[in-house]
Design a protein that fits this description.
This protein is an alpha/beta fold and 249 residues long. It has 13 helices and six strands.
């Protein structure tokens, strides 16, 4: 084993040794699960179009999609930087970064989201498990009031379904609940954790509305129309033995 691998192994052991196992850990996605990211994106694209014209909006969208395919997540600031490299001598576009950083994130948290999180925190540990970059995504989570709402329990990866070992190290649990608007990710996590996880599909946003894409994946354990519907559920709904008995009745 190399020195680097040995160091990583020791880090994981230290993390694991400092965490007690919880009965339930609730993991929440952010974009279009707790936070109306579609609305924020629409506001951004509309702002660019109004301020700089339709051509600028179209080019930014093209760059944004290129980066999303390259990185695996939406990189709004990275797309601004790449557009800037093409328009280096148009300093007006620099103002878009300020507009985005100062966006009223708290206004885009879905109704009932904070209450749903608080309810889950009474039942077990609750944490954010999100994909995203290392600058804008934490800013969004913090300014939206979600960082505080989760008591600082925030994980942001590039591909969260590939980081479940680390999730277990940070938040060891007998059972997990994953709440997400992307059925693809819920299916991938279910494939890995199997009966150790209860998946909750929140049917909000454009990913959830893509019926053709979602038809490729197994249904989640639960589907709810909006995040506030979580308030109608009980702790026992998520406990594996009780859920299995209920489904077999």
């Amino acid at each position: 084993m190399s020195a680097k691998q040995s160091g990583q192994s020791q880090n994981k052991k230290r993390v694991a040794s400092s965490k007690a196992e919880h009965e339930l850990v609730f993991l929440f996605d952010v974009d279009n699960t707790l936070f109306d990211n579609d609305r924020m994106s629409s506001d951004l694209f509309g702002h660019i179009g109004r301020a700089f014209g339709a051509a600028a909006r179209q080019r930014y969208l093209e760059i944004y999609e290129e980066l999303r395919k390259e990185l695996g997540y939406a990189d709004y600031l990275g797309a601004i930087e790449r557009y800037r490299m093409e328009k280096m001598h148009d300093p007006r576009f620099l103002s878009v970064s300020n507009w985005l950083i100062e966006y009223p994130f708290a206004k885009r948290v879905f109704p009932g989201a904070h209450d749903a999180v608080e309810q889950c925190r009474r039942w077990g540990k609750a944490a954010i498990l999100s994909d995203g970059d290392a600058v804008f995504q934490p800013r969004k989570v913090e300014q939206a009031g979600l960082w505080k709402g989760f008591g600082g329990n925030v994980l942001i990866f590039v591909h969260k379904e590939r980081e479940l070992d680390w999730v277990e190290k940070f938040y060891p649990a007998k059972h997990y609940v994953m709440v997400d608007d992307k059925l693809r990710l819920l299916a991938a996590i279910k494939e890995i954790w199997k009966d150790r996880v209860t998946t909750v599909f929140v049917q909000q946003g454009h990913y959830a509305a893509d019926k053709a894409a979602n038809a490729k994946y197994a249904a989640a354990d639960f589907s709810i129309r909006r995040i506030a519907d979580l308030l109608q559920m009980k702790k026992s709904d998520f406990l594996p033995m009780k859920r299995a008995a209920s489904q077999g009745a």
